[in-house]
Each structure stands twice: as C-alpha cells, then as structure tokens.
Amino acid sequence: MARTWLSIRVDLVSGQGADFWPRPGRVFAASRSHSFAQLAEAIDVAFGRWDLAHLHMFTLRDGSGVSPLDWWDGEAPDGTADGRSTKLSRLEAGEQFAYVFDMGDSWAHLCTVAEKRIDPMDELGADPGRPAPYWGWGSLPDQYGRRWDGDDGESRTPKRPSRGGLGDLPPLLPWWGDRGRGRSR
C-alpha cells in the first residue's frame, strides 16, 4: 500500500475546566476516505471514553464546524457539515483543527495533520479499515474525573489495603499476593 494515509496528531488540551500540561496525546493513521465521524470515534476510544452519547464537534481552520447533524435536533450551529458524510480528504498537510467532545465538560483537542502521508502497513501492520492510533503518550484523565471505582467526587481517597503493596491481590503473578510484599509503587 502506498503512503496515502494521513497521520493526525491529537493533543488533549483541556477538559472539565482544567488545562493539561504536558498534554497527553495520540497519533492516528486515517485514510482520506474516512469520515470525521469515524475520526471522532477513534479519538474518543483512544482517549478512554466509554460514555459516547455526548455531542462533539470539529472546528476547522476556516471556522466551519463538522458534527453529526442529527444529534443536534436541528440546533447545530449554522454552516455545520455532517460528520458522517464529510471526508478527511478535506484536510491538508500541516493543517490544524480542533475537536471538542462533550460540550458540557469541553474535552478540547488540538489536531494536526502531518506534512507527510503514511502507509498504514508500516505503522500498524495492517489496514484497519478505520482511523486507528499508532503512537501515544501521557496519562489520560477519566471522562468524569473519577479516580477509583465508586468515586462520587466528595469522598476521600480509599486507603491502601492493610496488607500493603500488592498483597490484596490473588497470587496469580509472582509479585502479587503475599509473595509480592514490599513491592509497592
């Protein structure tokens, strides 16, 4: 396969009222024939989001928006293109654009198209059929700011188990359970 796919770097800039630095990010391989909706889904999955029932919008460098129009119940901003039919072929090398997931929590991303095209076989070892991440860095914040299972936003951080280290785990791996005493992180 020739070097025909786009390489799109996506940096998480802010969300839930916080700005991130250093910014976590991912780099995606995407065909020019993929839609913006497909890219949105790939970004959301790669950034650890599971509640995908939120509005999202791309804002292109000319200020135009791209979003699934039927999600807006007729309230999409004027001039918004349908993300399900608008293809990534609209993007140019070096172009920067924004992606916002969840208009309430405003998970804002800076997206940058690389100057050179890539071959998905070189980067992914396959043609995934949809946009896919092939590089990444940084710790990703939870979509709702939860820090542990059951976090209600008001409770104190749970204490580590009294057995210390990884002693609360079943001894399935050599450093888990009682065998793992003293190897805490």
Fill in the keyword field for this structure:
2 helices, 185 residues, single chain, 2 domains
- Our estimate of the beta-strand percent is 15-25%
Name the CATH class of the largest domain.
Alpha Beta
Number of strands: 9
Helical proportion, percent range? under 10%
Shape: globular
Oligomer: single chain
> Under the CATH scheme, which architecture of the largest domain would be assigned?
Roll
Q: Give a short account of the largest sheet.
A: 9 strands, mixed
Averaging pLDDT over every residue, what do you get?
90
Task: Give a verbal description of the structure.
- It contains two helices and nine strands, in the order βββαβββββαβ.
- It is mostly beta strands and about 180 residues long.
- The protein folds into two domains: about 5-135, MM3350-like (Structural Genomics Hypothetical 15.5 Kd Protein In mrcA-pckA Intergenic Region, Chain A), CATH 3.10.290; about 155-185, no CATH class.
- Strands 1, 2, 3, 4, 5, 6, 7, 8 and 9 form a nine-stranded mixed sheet that branches.
- The longest helix has 11 residues, at about 35-45.
- The chain is globular and about 55 Å long.
- The model has no long low-confidence stretch (mean pLDDT about 90).
How would you concisely characterize the structure shown here?
By secondary structure, the chain is mostly beta strands. It is built from two helices and nine strands, in the order βββαβββββαβ. It starts with 5 loop residues before the first strand and ends in a 48-residue tail after the last strand.
